[in-house]
Amino acid sequence: MSIKIGVGDFKERVHEELNNEFMRGAVRGAQERLRIKRLDEAEQLGNWEEWRSLGEEIRQHVLNHLDYYLYELSENVAKRGGHVFFARTSEEASQYVKEVVQKKKAKKVVKSKSMVTEEINLNSYLEEAGCEVIETDLGEYILQVDEDHPSHIVAPALHKNKNQIREVFKEKLHYSNTEKPEEITAFVRKHLRNEFLTADVGITGCNFAIAETGSITLVTNEGNADLVMSIPKTHIAVMGMERIVPTFEEMEVLVSLLCRSAVGHKLTSYVTAITGPREEGEADGPEEFHLVIVDNGRSDILGTEFQPVLQCIRCAACINVCPVYRHIGGHSYGSIYPGPIGAVLSPLLGGYEEYKELPYASSLCGACTEACPVKIPLHELLLKHRQVIVEREGKAPFSEKIMMKAFGLGASSDMLYGLGSRAAHSALKPFTKNARISKGPGPLKAWTKIREFPAPEKERFRDWFKNREGGKQS
Amino acid sequence: MKVSLFVTCLVDLFKTNVGKATVELLEHLGCEVDFPESQICCGQPSYNSGYVEETKDAMKHMIKTFEHSEYVVAPSGSCAFMFKEYPHIFKDDPIWEPKARELADKTYELTQFIVEVLGVEDVGAKMEGKATYHTSCHMTRLLGVKEAPIKLLRNVKGLEFTPLPGAHLCCGFGGTFSVKMGPISEQMVDEKVSNVESTGADYLISADCGCLMNIGGRMERQGKPIRVMHIAEVLNHRG
Amino acid sequence: MTGMIQNRTSFLKNIAEKLGRNPITKGVHRPSYKHTPQYEVLKTATRDELVSVLASQCSNIHVQLMETTADHLAEQVKAAVRSYGGGPVSVWKDERYAEYGLTDLVEKEWPHEQTLVHVWNDDLGEENIRLSEKANVSIVFSDITLAESGTVVLFTGKNKGRSMTLLPKHFIALIPQSTLVPRMTQAAQIIREKIKKGEAIPSCIQFITGPSNSADIELSTVYGVHGPVKATYIVISDR
């Protein structure tokens, strides 16, 4: 199982990414545009806070009855002739898909964008089985050709500029036109069209499964998912187990929230609800349909204080407003899930050992919580992770633990605070010049690396208050 | 009206003028201000780093400090917000939860108190110059106070108020974040400084000392002439 | 033929355990949601107003809108196809073409002027896909049309291929005014009504909004990534 991307540790990755001028400019530009578009659409729609509350209510209801809805979904998929495989682990999921593909003697698979298939390393399993796997989402295709990783969950190739793309296509695909996006796109269209038409198996994700009808909903602007599920003879849909709604009525609410929050569209160009394989006599659509429902650590989040993170509809609105992501980009997170949602989810799916810095890579500004269309309290969950890291995992640095304990003592004792605060002025005098500290000791060192720090004043406020004429205190 | 001042540890030690201005301003508006001496710190620095148990004593200390207060007013959105968090932190404690709730219910950030409780939007302040305002994240998003400071600033005579581009972006303070994640915080504060400079303002005003120390400290290091002022100091300026 | 279900029992038992109870397989009802803003959108819009909304949305989604009456539909369709560079044309085997007076065009006029017409017919099997691939324009009737988003809803299935509208470079949707509803909310209700009446849900329902597009390269929008490059909606105003 791997959500992990990249090498090195967090600080090393951040250092490298902070020097990636193009990425930073691209992310800044993307954040500006997508944030404004989301806000505009929210305003146009009206009653946005009610919509968010409805989205939250729907997701919470489903999570609290997840077993019921998955049962209903599987019954209804099977009634329509589709096969359902429940996979506890990522290995089970990938192994099942591999077996289906092998049984079909498939040589070529076309795929539409699916985060969960990246989570379970599906492509490597299939390639091991001698199958060619072709990503058809434009951004994912670019990354596949360049052997790179996604840096954003909706716009995965955000960090790439058109010249880089042109170079890669020239080198690997003998592309001979310019870097103009229209020309690159026309080339990809032609190139991939042939792949759609000759693929043996189509693999998609699932934006929302609909329990009442046994349907899965695919949301794209490109229409690639529609081609993936209509031309190859076998269609395999892989879904994170929480990506489910009771009926079409809830699906439309969440799709409305998703499209506006993700890309500032009322609806994307293609929202398609598929139910089972093709009906008797239909000339396109798959003859065989498989739905793989993946747990991969999600059930361990149920029933815990982190359960709200499973409300996520993968819109990336949080990523688009995060002031930290803005500077460090997606690859810094070392996970296919970056930004605020990634900082909450990655330690849960990938472990604290690998991801213990992510919850601290936040000023808890709350922009993510404010942007989330289904009201996940993201910054609160980041804080909860810190509490877990300190108290349950015992992964906080020893020196910090000592400092915090001392702080706790000092902040609850008048005597200790009095001693410490009165001494502060003289203790820091050696470092003070013109009432400023420019090179501080201990915890002040990191601060004063780039900022001046005000020296503690000789007279504390409380002393001034006490001494003022007619001063009142209690 | 009797008001207990929750001055905050940053003001007590490093920005005493903000405390003084707050007291004078509230008195000017007709309040009787007292200062419960046993107050120390709301606990954010350790709480926000994940140290809940270590912070509980400090929080209980604050709850006891303000037990007899009618109104608790703080010149800090983040510290006022921290008091609002206390009832959730003590939610499983039948003794302290009601006390925490009582404190949370009577706590206000300064501009929030002036506008919502005193019902005043013009405090009679006067200050010449061009200013821009930094909306601190905890105050706007978490405490939910967005309009009050703007309303008050717009009534300061002589003050040319210009909006700050990228106001929604965090300045990079985030308490211990600024030192734990130094390189990232640096990028964030630099973008903030650049936005502040682009306004051509003489003053940067904010309602949170953490943000002011962060942005102000960076600008001072870079030798930039923009002066940072806490909103209490501006509103207390009458000449 | 019922499909196979594997590993369900232990999988769901684990979920129920984590939720602190036994597994549930029946008796859960959708709650009465506290907020229902979706019903308010375009609640009181008349049909003319919905057409107006659709028209203005078309300019946002890169769709050319034409309005006509049933009598003039054939000539408008012919003109639209010509503007896209002519045939070949792919249509479904669907009695609405005859109902709306397009039989002559499809069966006589186009063939007469050497415009190839492919009628999607299940008997042709896979050949349909190859023929659509070679077509320049696909033309279908919308089953439900969402004014707010400019979306045509297609209930694909027998003799109505799901890939047909994606393969050619140009897409024309014929929209009888009577198919207009405010937004997806009503479409979802219509679909659920059908299910309640015992109708089998189509194996593929497509909600199509304008041409295929992507912003994956430097956030620059490009059209016709895998599907159509251009789209025209023809609203038939008297039916």
TrEMBL record, chain B:
GO terms for molecular function: oxidoreductase activity. Transmembrane segments: none annotated. One of its GO terms (biological process) is lactate metabolic process. GO terms for cellular component: cytosol. Residues 3-84, 132-215 form the Cysteine-rich domain. Is involved in L-lactate degradation and allows cells to grow with lactate as the sole carbon source. Belongs to the LutA/YkgE family. This is Lactate utilization protein A.
